[in-house]
Amino acid sequence: MMNVAQCRALIESTKLFVFDCDGVIWRGATLIDGVADALDGLRRHGKRVAFITNNSTKTRANFVKKFHGLGLTWVERDDVWSSASAAAAYLTQRAKLDKSRKVYVVGQSGLCEELCEAGYTVLGGPDDEGSSVFPVPERFEVDPAVGAVVVGFDRAINYYKLAYATMCARENKDCLFLATNRDAITHLNDEQEFPGGGTMVAALETAIGRAPEVAGKPSPFLVDALYAFHGLDRDSAHAVMVGDRLDTDIIFGNTNNMATLLVMSGVTRQSHVDATQPGEDDYPTYIAPSLKLLADTLAEM
Amino acid sequence: MMNVAQCRALIESTKLFVFDCDGVIWRGATLIDGVADALDGLRRHGKRVAFITNNSTKTRANFVKKFHGLGLTWVERDDVWSSASAAAAYLTQRAKLDKSRKVYVVGQSGLCEELCEAGYTVLGGPDDEGSSVFPVPERFEVDPAVGAVVVGFDRAINYYKLAYATMCARENKDCLFLATNRDAITHLNDEQEFPGGGTMVAALETAIGRAPEVAGKPSPFLVDALYAFHGLDRDSAHAVMVGDRLDTDIIFGNTNNMATLLVMSGVTRQSHVDATQPGEDDYPTYIAPSLKLLADTLAEM
């Protein structure tokens, strides 16, 4: 566990704190102890903060509402980086997909809305929920203007969507294939691991026959976009990734030249930590029980 | 291309001819030229024949009906090996799954029927088509008696099925995870490549976190079951696999100690053949335009 002196040194040397949300900031509908004070303290010391989440089903506006509801009323849309907004940023900034080209979505409304806000005409998503059973035509026609297939978590996944996305990616010229994220599992309730967005991605990867680009964690694109937004340089960003998962957050930070702080307020148990090895991508630089350690340290600074 | 002398030698040295169906025996609803005479000739010369298909959506009874409708009225259920019947055989013969354990199916009615006929209580399949949208419970309960999840091509795939199968495989003790086949694409119409059963398998493999056993082509299980049925020994079976696809049929034969005969009456073009290399798993032993060469050769024998 990190001690107060180490925590103080980390705060002093860090320009940007990047936080995973679930298990770090909140658990379900509850703010985790110490979070409000930790964030206030960091901002008071002139630190930049950003929140990232691989949840692609909500818009940043939805997340801002959640932050406000938990009392973090200073949080703005630009502070939040979701895998849906990352996908939209990928299309505009990285792929430079012309706005005349449409986007076919296998995913939920939040993803569609982020892509619409970025200026794209969006097909699929909830509009194709009702098309699960369809007669097979002599030729399955797709809109030739579709220039990108974007896939995220979709509880209304069906064969029509899989077929439409597959035909676009296989038959439309230069059609991009982009995943919001590849998380294998997701927690729809507190106890169990449900199929995550990575299951829809794997299905389409198989049918399309090529691997997707990835916009969210642990893709380096998200870091590049985040650093560009904050005017930071990748090599001297002095950023720290704070997360509760070794296999996503900590790997993401370690492979992107960030320090990593694992908090034990989420899904990771000591036995998981004991199974990691120094030098491995999932080995955290620091470990703390929760953000309360930051709050306490900042109170003394 | 194989000449008549080679064809004659192949027939003379072969005990068992294993035929893929689509593109070899029929194209859509049409019998391919020479097939009836070739099969009659082989049977007249005392050769054993078997038909195998990775289509898991129909029962063997359905296939027999198709054979009969095309004039091949001697074909019986035991002559047909589908990936659905292979899955049922896998559970009974290989996994020796007790009949008291239930089977959860992500797949269509033919697969469910084959598993029922094998003596299992089947859950899922078409019964769970209507469950695509469901409120997330505090705990997603699955039947603890489910001892195997079997996945095949499913045009009515939905999130409920993916979640149910995932929970069974992750939470039920010793729950088997079995795929009928992993074909990435399928031809629902003549022109296009649609997502195949392999897409549903990939989705579940991701969520479950382990690779499935496979019953159909190119799994060696299918060959073992076929040889056992015909009382043949794997090392001296003198079998030939006849197919129209390099990436499934020819690989299947080559990796299972069979001679392989590629027929050009299906999806493979000369350019595909030119891209194969001697010694590779997809390099066929022989190539013929269609089964008409067998028919013509047999007419002279």
Automatic annotation (TrEMBL), chains A, B:
Any one GO molecular-function label of the UniProt entry: phosphatase activity
Cofactor note: Divalent metal ions. Mg(2+) is the most effective.
GO cellular component, one term: cytoplasm
InterPro entries in UniProt: HAD-like_sf (IPR036412), HAD-SF_hydro_IIA (IPR006357), HAD_sf (IPR023214), PGP_euk (IPR006349)
Keyword Magnesium: yes
Active site as annotated: D20, D22
Keyword Magnesium attributed: yes
Superkingdom of origin organism: Eukaryota
Co-factor(s): Mg(2+)
Binding site for substrate: K217
Stored PANTHER family: 4-NITROPHENYLPHOSPHATASE-RELATED (PTHR19288), HALOACID DEHALOGENASE-LIKE HYDROLASE DOMAIN-CONTAINING PROTEIN 2 (PTHR19288:SF46)
Protein name: Phosphoglycolate phosphatase
